[in-house]
Amino acid sequence: MYTTGLADERVRWINTIASIEANVVNVTGDILICSGCVAYLTPFTDHLYSNVCRSLFERNKLHFAFLLCVRILINAGKLDPHEWHYFLAGGSPTKIAEK
């Protein structure tokens, strides 16, 4: 039991890593589908906003409004997704380390 236990764990870890890598490939498509749904449902944005804000805490309403606005701007082509990612992630690690 103890002699094959670590070998079995290694196989299990390799299989888990392979399944995670397969799921990461699907994330991009899932995000694209969600973005398309938001773009399609833009006329319902006001209704969605009011319903969601009713269930949010007061401190989270501004965050939700900001994220909703950003997603609408990205879908309308008025905000570059790369700029949004740069805003979220900041500069490269070397630029941050220099400061």
UniProtKB/TrEMBL annotation:
Domain of life per record: Eukaryota
InterPro entries: DHC (IPR026983), Znf_Sec23_Sec24_sf (IPR036174)
CC terms in the record's Gene Ontology section: COPII vesicle coat; dynein complex
A GO BP entry: endoplasmic reticulum to Golgi vesicle-mediated transport
One of the record's GO molecular function terms: zinc ion binding
Name of the molecule in the record: Uncharacterized protein
Organism annotation: Aromia moschata
Organism phylogeny: Eukaryota, Metazoa, Ecdysozoa, Arthropoda, Hexapoda
